[in-house]
Design brief:
mainly alpha; 351 residues; 13 helices
Length: 351
């Protein structure tokens, strides 16, 4: 699948395409199984989705964003209309794309706190959420060209890809786009050094970038200070699940504004990217094994009777040190998430 001789502007061989399609099919089936488990075996489905897949995803986005872009089950689903040649193949202009990116960030900030209110403990609710996102992904895939509207637009994971995928070092071909149709600019797959503030052409672009870089670390910190609820939604529960994440957002936005005049922009973005994922794993790894702030919340397996807490703390610390090196200290990579395929050859016919 990974060919060191693959160069931008070339096309995947039939053999490579078969490899990638097989891997995509495997992950698509895994996603489908998780969805079915959420409906029929909700406890298992919650563990598979919220306590295994989601904790792995941030680290994968850091070290191999392009791999995720190639195998994401939701992305593969959104591209089914295009692969079947039933998409209208419309292109998005810069203004439309900026609106979709802003909606994705707002969606991220709305959906994630609701995990505490309902999704973390309710498999059917999570299945309905995922099914709704699948419907939206397929709908925009039926209208717009390739990855433009979902993978690079409305997907609520895409903003996090831009924040965490700053130091991509893995050369991978684009396993979805056979040729480049220049459907959006800048294309996140083929733009080296992409970050949330890369596109500053409009107010929405600037606001989206600021919300992601400056607000996300505080949002993540605040999210982990809230417990899971299993009761019916109420105004008080909604206030609880949104209050601390939004307060954390305000704090880190202020922190970002204070540092901005004194810290080089690329370093500042890297620092805030690191803070967001460091907060995530500092709290998430202990919670997975029963050592979380709220015992039982987000727990995969209870190891409190078998493993000293110091061991789990050491694992979290080691991972955070690695992430600091990767995101902040390592040399900035000029490799895009995915290598650009050959441009589409447009033909014209004389009448």
């Amino acid at each position: 699948m990974i060919n060191k001789s693959f160069k931008p502007g070339t096309t995947l061989s039939a053999k490579s395409i078969r490899y990638w399609r097989t891997v995509q099919l495997i992950f698509f089936l895994i996603g489908l199984c998780i969805l079915l488990c959420l409906i029929f075996l909700p406890e298992l489905g919650i563990h598979l989705f919220w306590n295994i897949l989601i904790p792995i995803a941030p680290l994968l986005l850091v070290v191999a964003t392009g791999l995720w872009r190639n195998i994401c089950p939701m992305g593969t689903t959104s591209l089914i209309p295009r692969h079947l040649n039933v998409s209208q193949r419309k292109s998005l202009d810069a203004e439309q794309l900026s609106k979709l990116n802003f909606i994705a960030i707002v969606g991220l900030f709305i959906i994630v706190p609701l995990r505490h209110a309902i999704f973390n403990t309710n498999g059917l609710a999570t299945a309905i959420l995922l099914s709704s996102l699948v419907f939206i992904a397929i709908s925009v895939g039926l209208k717009y060209e390739w990855k433009s509207a979902w993978c690079s637009g409305l997907c609520p994971v895409h903003p996090v890809e831009k924040l965490y995928g700053l130091k991509n070092k893995l050369k991978l071909p684009n396993a979805h786009c056979k040729t480049c149709h220049k459907c959006i600019t800048p294309c996140p797959d083929k733009t080296p050094g992409l970050h949330p503030l890369t596109n500053k052409k409009s107010f929405l672009n600037k606001l989206s970038g600021l919300l992601l870089v400056a607000a996300f670390p505080g949002f993540v910190w605040g999210w982990f200070q809230v417990k899971d609820y299993e009761s019916i939604l109420s105004p008080q529960i909604l206030l609880d699940v949104y209050g601390l994440p939004f307060l954390g957002m305000l704090f880190t936005i202020l922190f970002y504004i204070i540092l901005k005049p004194y810290v080089r922009k690329d370093l500042l973005i890297s620092l805030f990217s690191f803070l967001a994922i460091a907060f995530y794993y500092w709290y998430r790894i202990p919670a997975l094994f029963g050592f979380g702030i709220f015992p039982g919340d987000g727990m995969l397996v209870n190891l409190t009777q078998f493993v000293p807490e110091l061991v789990i703390t050491s694992i979290s610390t080691s991972l955070i040190i690695f992430l600091f090196w990767w995101i902040v200290l390592s040399k900035k990579s000029k490799i895009s998430w995915l290598l650009r395929p050959a441009y589409e050859v447009k033909t014209s016919f004389l009448k």
